[in-house]
Amino acid sequence: MSGDNIKGWRYSWRENPQMDNCRSWAKITSTDIPLKDIQEVVYHWGYDRLEKLHADAVAGKKKNDNAFANWLIREKDTEITSFLLLAKKCEQTREKQCSQWYYPAWGDEENTLLMEIVEKAKEYKGERLFDRYTLQMMRALFSLRQYNECLSIWLSRKNSFHRDVIEEMAKNYAAGACYHIGEIAKAKKMFIETGDIISYVFCINKEGKTYDSYDMLPIIYQRDTNDKRLFQQMQNIIHYDIEWGRPNLEKNLKTLYDFTLNVLDEGKAKNLAGWYYTASYLSDKLCDTVQALEYIRQARELPAGQDLKDAIRVFDIYLKAKSATKYDTDFENYLYDELSWLDQKIVMNLDSVTKKRIIRYGITYRNFGHSLYYWDDMMRKILLSQVVPKCIASGYQVRALQLLNMADNRLLNLVGKVYDYSTDSIMEWGNFQRICCSYRSRWRLDYLPYNDYDYGNDFFINLDSLGVQHIERLVVRMQKPLCDFDRFLTERSYVNMEYFYEIIGTQLLAAMRYEEAIHYLNQVSNEFMHTTNVSLYYKTKPKYYYTTEPKDYKLNFAKKMYALEENIRRLRNPDDRAECMLAYAKELQNSIGPHWYLTRYYSGHWYDYPFYSQYQTDLYDNVVKEFEYIKWKAFKTFTDAERAAKACYDWSLYKTAVTKYPQTKTAEYIRGHCDVLADYKDAPDKELYKYFKQR
Questions:
Q1: Which domain of life is it from (predicted)?
Q2: Paired sense of beta strands 425-428 and 417-420, if any
């Protein structure tokens, strides 16, 4: 029996019923036997292997690598091996009946085998395994739907059970039998006694009463104020309902909060630190940070296990960061100490299993915002949600970028490896040029290797949003740290200068500061340019560039624009200057249009980019304004009508050419070759349009 829509619940109040059963086996055999060996034989060996074990126990000769099996062979304990065979046969038969392909029929093989198991279990007259044989008998009768017989066996034999996990399992079958014969009240009472809350709620739901995960909390608490499932259930509710923002969020939060305060008011629970920690979390979710700080202070003063102490300290850091009114020297000193401690936890708790998960899924999880590793998750949550916004608001943009760099790169740099989807292999990951292939490259050949992490994380989004001057200062601080905190952050960050120089150069291109852009882009290698997220777009090879190297696309653009600026300033002939201005305007238009990747890293909708910053919007708008102004001024500058008409033709301004410069050869050419009305009229003839529409 199971409850409806209840996730993550254990069958029993016991933390691990399976291991409790193994301990019970150790008591009647030898406590020197490792529990994992008992677990292997009892739960994981198949029927054939147990049959061989029984034969070896009968002979008492052959050794076995498993300590429990070896003890049974050495002691010739066929009493236990015979029972294990019967229990395994019962388990296999019941599993067959649970198959969706099983169609019950009285007298079929499964029912016959279960009846034989019942009879064989009844034949056992010993005391050592009497309760275990009774349990198998009840299981078989329950599967045969002989509920009255199952309950009768329990009532006649319950006093023979030891007070352990076997009695609890048998009592649950008896409770289930009571439910099926209509004794619902008795069944509910027995389920509560065994701690099977799920089955208890199942009974209530079947009576037409709606009980959910929240209703189970007081039931468990009333039965045992220190039941470990209380925190398990709270954690499940918080994860699935609260963090995921399910419907009735505020109501659910209030229900949990009231229950938690009731537990604290009664003071019966042993783990009060855990309850104050929970109250602090819920207070924060209810937007009462002051009360949350008070609860977390009380939690820190109470005794607790080391894991809980660490979790309390982490949440205390988060709350203090959240309650800080601004980022100043005092707060930075506090943050430095706590971030140093948190960083130690990241390193100390990084085991091999976690490393493998980070290598395999780290980039993907980060790109989609999934949880990866508790200590790193919490460091990121504190910095990204609380500290960085206060840094920026307080005017510490460079410090904000340093913190973001650590938040996004500390863990991946520490592990040092990531999974490459395109080659299905592990690649190095560190403070050098790095390519992280998109997972789509496994199915699309045109998705070549490129970096989809360093141009999509929170660090990059802020590099792309705060202003190029802050990136330039960041580079200086990384190369020449001003304090210990600078050094601490730089040591835990991505420090490949080419990454920063390329971004600075790109933003300077967007800001039309071409001479400065040349300085930075000259320091970026061709190899690095192949790793940017827009490197694939360089395959288009604009015809006016004379090289195929990605580096030169941006660098040559900067050089060409700088040369055009110099020519505009230098040229004295107004027509030469006007043509130069139009060439400059055309390049500006291209840099935010078809060749947008010269000045940006994204175009249109990009799922990794949550907003278009005002900084980037202003850069774009300024280019548009400059383009329009230069174009307007250029046509005003022309003195030669023929050259002006030719410029109009090049810009598809056919009407302007034929009306403003009608005597030119260009105007004559347009009149003689253009047969499309829209090519030389500003707007369609409304009367003509109406005529065609009517026809």
A1: Bacteria
A2: antiparallel
Q: Could you tell me the two tokens for 311?
A: 């979790």
Pairwise CA distance, residues 507 & 521, whole Å: 11
How confident is the model over 452-492, as pLDDT tens digits? 788 888 999 999 999 999 999 999 999 999 999 999 999 99
CA distance 223 to 418: 48
- Closest by CA to 460, choosing from 448, 447, 446, 474, is 474
Residue type, 514: Y
pLDDT exceeds cutoff 90 at 8:
no
Residue pLDDT, tens place only, 498-530: 999 999 999 999 999 999 999 999 999 888 888
Q: What is the pLDDT of residues 543-558, one digit of tens each?
A: 444 344 555 789 999 9
Measured in residues, the chain has a length of 695
Q: Answer for the pair 504, 520: CB distance below 8 angstroms, yes or no.
A: yes
Q: Tokens 């360093």 label which residue?
A: 454
Q: What is the 3-state secondary structure (H, E, C) of 373-398?
A: CHHHHHHHHHHHHHHHHHHHHCCCHH
- Tokens 């249109």 appear where? 604
Instruction: For the chain, list the domains and their CATH numbers.
Output: 1-206 (1.25.40), 396-613 (no CATH), 640-694 (no CATH)
Euclidean distance between CA atoms 31 and 170, whole angstroms = 24
List the structure tokens of 351.
């085991």
pLDDT digits (tens, 9 = 90+) for 656-675: 999 999 999 999 988 887 66
Chain Cα centroid distance, residue 685: 58
Q: How far are the Cα atoms of 27, 34, 275, 388, 400 from residue 471, in angstroms, in the given order? A: 68, 59, 45, 15, 11
Q: Which helix (H) or strand (E) holds 420?
A: strand 417-420
Q: Where are the alpha helices (DSSP H) in 239-351?
A: 249-266, 272-285, 289-301, 306-323, 329-348
* DSSP per residue, 132-185: HHHHHHHHHHHHTT-HHHHHHHHHHHGGGS-SSHHHHHHHHHHHHHHHHTT-HH
Dihedral of CA atoms 25, 30, 36, 38 in degrees, nearest 10, equals -50
Q: What are phi and psi of 32, to 5 degrees?
A: -80, -15
How many angstroms separate the Cα of 341 from the Cα of each of 351, 385, 442, 664? 18, 19, 40, 78
This prediction's pTM: 0.76
